[in-house]
Amino acid sequence: MNKSLLFAVSLLFLITIDLFSGEYLSNILVVKFVDSVQIEKIIENVSPYNLTINSLLGNVTFEPAFNQKLIEFGLRKYSNYFRTDYQNRLQSLRRVFIVKYTNEIDPIVASRKLHNLGIFEYVEPFYIHKIDSATNDPYFGNQYYLRQIKALEAWNLIDSTADTVVVGIVDTGVDIDHEDLRKNIFINYGEVGIDSSGKFKSLNGIDDDGNGYVDDVFGWDFCGTDGQKPDNDPRPGNGHGTHVAGIVGVVHNNEIGVAGIVPKVKILPVKTADDNPFNTFISKGYEGILYAGIMGAKVINCSWGSETGSELENDVIRTVNSMGVCVVAAAGNDGKYSDFAPASLNGVLSVAAVDSNDIKAGFSNYSGRVGVSAPGVKILSTTPANSYASWDGTSMASPVASGVVALARQKFPNLNYEQIYELVKRQSDNIDSLNPNYVGLIGSGRVNAQRTLDCNPDTIRSIILTSYKVFDFDGDNLLVPNDTIKLFLAFKNVFSDLKNVYVEIPDNSQNIASILKNRLMVGDVPILTTIEPKDSIVFILSSNLPYDYSLKIPIYVYDSIGFVARFYIEFQVNPTYRTMSFNNISVTFNSRGNIGFNDYPQNKQGVGFIYKSKPNVLFEGGLLVGYDRLHVYDVVRSSNQNRQSGNFVEENIFSISYDSEKKSYIGKCSFITKPDSLSRSDVYVNCEVLQSVGVDDSNLVFISYWVKNNSLIDWDSLFVGLFFDWDLGISGQNDYCVYDLDFDFGYAYNKDNDTLPLVGVKVLNDSPINFYAIDNDGRGEDSVGIYDGFSKYEKWMMLTGGIKRKSSRATDASMVISAGPLRVEKDSTTKVHFVLFAEQNILSLRKTSINAESLAYKLSLTNKPKERKISPVDITIFPNPSSDDFIIRISFLEISPVEITVYDNSGRFVRKFSYEKNVPWTIEQKLGLGGVGSGNYFVLVKTMFGDRHFLITKVK
Fold first, then answer.
1. What's the pLDDT band for 917 if we cut at 50, 70, 90?
2. Is 359 helix (H, G, I), strand (E, B) or coil?
3. DSSP per-residue string spanning 887-946
4. Is residue 259 situated within a structural domain?
5. What is the CB neighbour count within 10 angstroms for residue 777?
6. Tell me, what's the pLDDT at 921?
7. How far apart are CA 47 and CA 39, in angstroms?
8. CATH assignment of the domain containing 826
9. 708 occurs within a structural domain
10. Which end of the chain is more exposed for a tag (fewer CB within 10 A), N or C?
């Protein structure tokens, strides 16, 4: 903390996502490049990938996420101690960068779009976390928790020759001058002494030890005054870190204050929050964890977190684990079932809080991933300025457990991090009987320092669940009521050999109708062996499963002696979405009106829109209904672009059946607008999706909506429409959305890649049609952008404006297409029909749109369609006029030879291109006129369908 600066104005905004209970910074991404990409060219803005990146993000800067000198220092320091696994993981962190950008696109939306670029291992927002404590009694209490965890007895079990253990406190900073902490503060001796110029290394402004941090004698402050100005003074900030540090490492036998859990300890202060004493956010936690690990911490405490974990944190945790470092973290203070991060990540010991009677604290989170519990109520410890206070929180429970872990590291220095975790868990005191509602959810027990140290690790029986896989017998990958499920498990034995191991799930497991095979025979598992049995546990899901339910199943492991371990596994069942994939199109629908995915913007629940097994081309789709500007209901993104409006709720869940008469699969669901204060819903919607399996109908899907007016008034102007954010090109770049006035449909295509499909959307009703092509970035002429959110006003304008904007730029593009105005009296229903379709070129797309009209008529969805004729060849030349070259695009319905000839204004020959045969597809040819003079030129195109002449103009 640089104390000469009293305040600063933060330049970054904090974004809170209620949906995911996570928080992140605006206009910042974290990316990890794949190993094969040329990172330097991207950073220098000379790579072809920069066109896509800059188009999406605007002006971009790349900064290494980690101090490169620290990585080099870590490789040198531990080169003789660790496996290549550690070196590879540490080296891979060189490929992680912080990306700052200028466009108004939400980091979650940007990360999902950039992920498809193919050059990143991961792309994610820059997540930050909250500390997990709450101030309680301001008066001094007593350290009951030392007696509760048997710390005093444990101290007698530590040999006087045991090495001092370094514990990293990655937090809000530590008061290194506190009279009860000062002697136990870590000293970096690489920055101590006299340098070659006769100056004190601690004050010379030089990075003497070469770790990338200047004069970091007592640790490092990664944030400084405003989160952006790191320095070498790790003093707080918020007093949280000082309280946490005191629990682990207050000096013993100094006749003042209190006593820490670990007598022989050095506290490494790593400040990862800014200097504001009221700030509760940790913004540089991942950097702090890596620094602490490389600087020698054997245990790292993280008394902070959120429900949003990140790939970056996983990367860092795996790296410090490969050094042998234990990471201990708080389970969170929301008082609910929650997989908090980093606590719930692999390689971290998660800690819940109990009170002095071993009852779960009301504020403590609980989860199947919690490893142990520890006292976390009225914990007396140090606070800044030589003070003390009793605080509550899993923030306090975590350092209690960290202290026990540190004692175990001192006592058993040859055990690896997994063995230390298992030792602490297996030697904890079982408190299930005191917490019957939380069995298996607050860890193996409450930590017991004496039992942990007073044991022979060679006799510890322990096993870790390393992975599990869930399969359903019918193979549809949907876990629904009455499904028969196979559960495959994999284990690792981290201690003594285990004989005759077997696994069981309880007969009374909730939401399981019956267990067909409840015991899995594993056999003998030698120490440090991973085993993945080929057999499985088999059970049938209940017929009364809740929708979108997270099913939790307890797993009990036994050996020839008896009970060994207990785990909880968790997976989603009975989803409210289904995928229609019965012809050349696969598309997902949920039960609220969304198309493509059920979990925007994560987009993991569903397939999007897929044509002929090609990649997905849809980022978001959904229904919009409005009858005036104040009553627009929809389920697509809102004015907060990372959150959907969610105006509809399910009534009947989407289900699929086969109609033999129509030779089609039909999906049905219904939903209503959220009830008002009088429990009344304005709009009822019945949705029906029809997918035909006929050869001529294999590239289309019908969507019909029956919209009922359940309000108290007649609707004079109802509009029913669909929104689609198409991502045909990489990250959605260089896409066009266009309205075809001749054939009355909207479509999207990519200007650069003719192997990608064209996708169309058509209103089938005999009603006025409205269409708006959106440039998502808002930069096009007369375009409303949606990177800054999609307001109700903008939606109403697009629903009602006629063919208002018939073409987008070549960019990340979206569209709204609707029917209306429609008059609907109260208690009456109207129906609106759409069709989605895809082809490989514009002519085929037009032909399919005509087929769709005919089929809709046969299915009694619409009246008799218009007579339409389609040309067998479509030719466009663009840009025209042009100062550079021209491109001619020719699309066919049938195979034809092609001859393209260019003449100047006097009729003299200039260029000629010939194609003897061409598939019924599209060809695209540059005319090679970049170097010719300005003026008019003529292009003659000969095909089997006749000759076509075009005038083009070359300008200076």
1. low
2. coil
3. EEEEEESS---EEEEEEETTS-EEEEEEES---SSEEEEE---TTSPSEEEEEEEEETTE
4. yes
5. 22
6. 67
7. 9
8. 2.70.98
9. yes
10. C
Domain that holds residue 490: 463-573
Mean of the pLDDT values across residues 119-143?
Answer: 72
pLDDT digits (tens, 9 = 90+) for 734-750: 999 999 998 999 999 99
User: Which residues carry out catalysis?
Assistant: 171, 240, 395
**b/e for 733-750, b at 16 or more Cβ within 10 A?**
bbbbbbbbeebbbbbbbb
Tell me the per-residue pLDDT of 783-817, one tens digit each, with 9 for 90 and over. Answer: 899 999 999 999 999 999 999 999 999 999 999 99
Among 414, 432, 455, which residue terminates a domain? 455
Q: Which of 724, 734, 792, 793 is nearest to 761 (CA)?
A: 724
| DSSP helix/strand/coil, 93 | helix
- 621, two tokens: 């789709």
Tell me whether strands 348-354 and 326-330 are parallel, antiparallel or unpaired. Answer: parallel
Cβ distance 383 to 247 under 8 Å? no
Q: Average pLDDT of the chain?
A: 91
Q: Write the secondary structure of 724-757 as one string of H (helix), E (strand) and C (coil).
A: EEECCCHHHCCEEEEEECCCCEEEEEECCCCCCC
Asked if residue 673 and residue 555 are part of one domain, the reply reads no
Coil, strand, or helix at residue 529?
coil
Look at residue 19 in the predicted model and tell me its pLDDT.
Answer: 26
Asked if 630 and 710 sit in the same domain, the reply is: yes
Contact at 8 Å (CB) between 200 and 325? no
Number of domains the chain is built from: 4
Q: What pLDDT shows up at residue 133?
A: 58
Specify the length of the chain in residues.
956
Query: Token digits for 92?
Result: 């891979």
Q: Of the residues 455, 473, 498, which one is the last residue of a structural domain?
A: 455
815 and 947 both lie in a single domain: no
Assigned domain for 48 exists:
no
- Is there a domain that residue 192 lies in? yes
